[in-house]
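Suppose you are handed only these lines of text.
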Amino acid sequence: MTAPRCLDVAIGVILDPSGACLVARRPRDLPQGGRWEFPGGKVAPGESPARALARELDEELGILPRRAAPLITVAHDYPEGCVRLHVFTVHGYAGSPRGREGQPLRWVPVQDLPGLEFPAANRPILRALSLPDRYLITPDHPDPEAVLRGLARTLEKGTVRLVQLRAPAWTQAEVLALAREAVPLCHRHGARILVNADPQTAAAAGADGVHLNGVRLAQWAAKGARPQVGDGQLVAASVHDADSLGQARGLGCDFVVISPVAPTATHPGARPLGWNRFAELARAAGCPVYALGGMTPAHIPRARARGGQGVAGIRGLWQGEGVGG
Ligand SMILES: Nc1nc2c([nH]c(=O)n2[C@@H]2O[C@H](COP(=O)(O)OP(=O)(O)OP(=O)(O)O)[C@@H](O)[C@H]2O)c(=O)[nH]1
Ligand SMILES: [Mg+2]
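From them, the structure of the protein bound to 8-OXO-guanosine-5'-triphosphate can be written out as follows.
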């Protein structure tokens, strides 16, 4: 899925402790000229992306990154050719950044980045910066009150900021009724919530987006249309293989969940993909990717080291009762 001869580029999302990010304006005469960019540049032959990042940040800004961690890798086809951006967050560096090539620099709060004009390939980078490292999926429990109690208890811990409400055994009306209670609960705790349902149900509940299960993903892909959601709302999907990943990519999903990465009690018959296959699919995704299946917060570093955004889970993230089989 990744084009074979892409130009490899190493990019640094340099963050200061207040959550501001350093951006530079590209010279007018370059491809994507006049747009804002994250500092970085082409990976030289034989160089690793991390090494290239250090060299480029020195050449362009006169700084040496101290703490850099992979954020996402995205491939994008421009009319002039394909680029593969290896994106790192940089939390610490030696020196003070200055535009050594005469490029204007600006520190911008991360939440204001979507207001700047970036190259088209940067959309998944902005999405990755806006998403947390864990995605809670609610357990399939017959009692809605138990789901709401468990959700409240989980949100009170303060570590979950993204939720998928999932109740596959319920009718549309029941899902909507539960969602109408779960949405304000999540918002009170500063969390966003997607509903695993049709987009109308998600919208009627005032949710932050829709999560497409495998069946709905295939249906929308067959129509060739991304579900209509409001501005800034999220479309996510469940992916299990290269085909469903291709469908999600085609719809321009904001993020996907890949499963099962490890054995999981909720789907005992499913064959785990393993971390290597997860990493391959994550590289080809073109959007942030969560690992699902046997995941706990302890797996977050492993998921991130393999190109993931973090982990998704039911029992590994849930604080309440109701995590049945
Ligand atoms: N640095 C950087 N490049 C980006 C970003 N987004 C993006 O699509 N690119 C693409 O990555 C490619 C390489 O970037 P670059 O022009 O910075 O390369 P470089 O520093 O080695 O430039 P040079 O050839 O002048 O030495 C360009 O085609 C550019 O369009 C971004 O946010 N930052
Ligand atoms: Mg550059």
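What can we learn from it? The pocket of magnesium ion (ligand 2) is lined by residues 40-41, 60 (CB under 6 Å). The first strand starts at residue 7 and ends at 14.
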